[in-house]
Design brief:
Length: 220
């Protein structure tokens, strides 16, 4: 057991993490009501599949979307990313549950007083690499019958980006410019991306049958 713990600590010390910094006042999120509905419905399924303590101040998983319309306070279409706040109950999330983030920066630059999810650096880099993806959701359950990443990377580790991209490009059903992707993250959960609202609506039709609980303890 001692050797196993030491090996795990050694591995965790190699994981790349990115800090965050507040840059200005909060920016109100656009009203992406269809996406918010999808996140709430997904979170309800997560709650059914994951045992939840009676006193819980942590809400696992996160969601994000890319703003394609710009804001009056910016001179051009800025392409801001909105990521869910830390420890927000996703079953009740709305536009006030999201934090504006600057894209394509080495440090996470966020607006307002609420820090974004710890997985924000992973989302930002996936948006940068997947130009057609405009919505993402991550949870700590698995999606049935989709590809699994090879290695177990903890929340927020940038190494997970390459794991996801390798899974996306590992077969004919995915491509670098996919409009939809779904990948299980080994020992972690899943991440899914969508290009358009209609893809979310299609996913909603099977949401009760889409997810499955992870086995605990899980061999990774």
């Amino acid at each position: 057991m001692g050797h196993a713990i030491a090996d795990r600590v050694k591995y965790l010390s190699t994981i790349t993490r990115v800090g965050s910094v507040r840059v200005s006042d909060a920016i109100e999120a656009p009203d992406e009501s269809e996406f918010f509905e999808f996140v709430r419905a997904s979170a309800e399924q997560f709650s059914d599949l994951i045992p939840t303590p009676s006193e819980n101040n942590r809400f696992l998983g996160n969601a994000s979307f890319r703003c394609r319309h710009g804001f009056p306070s910016f001179r051009s279409d800025s392409g801001k990313i909105f990521v869910s706040k830390r420890n927000v109950d996703k079953e009740f999330i709305g536009r006030d549950g999201f934090v504006a983030i600057n894209p394509d920066v080495s440090v996470v630059e966020y607006y307002g007083d609420h820090k974004p999810s710890v997985d924000t650096p992973v989302h930002l880099r996936l948006y940068s690499r997947c130009s057609k993806i405009n919505y993402m959701i991550h949870g700590h359950v698995y999606i049935k019958d989709v590809r699994m990443t090879r290695n177990n990377v903890p929340c927020g580790g940038l190494e997970e980006v390459n794991e996801v991209m390798e899974a996306l490009n590992g077969g004919p059903i995915y491509a670098f410019n996919s409009e939809v992707f779904e990948v299980n993250l080994k020992g972690h959960g899943f991440i899914a991306g969508f290009s358009q609202v209609r893809h979310l609506q299609e996913a909603m039709k099977s949401i009760q049958y889409k997810f499955k609980a992870r086995v605990f303890p899980e061999r990774i």
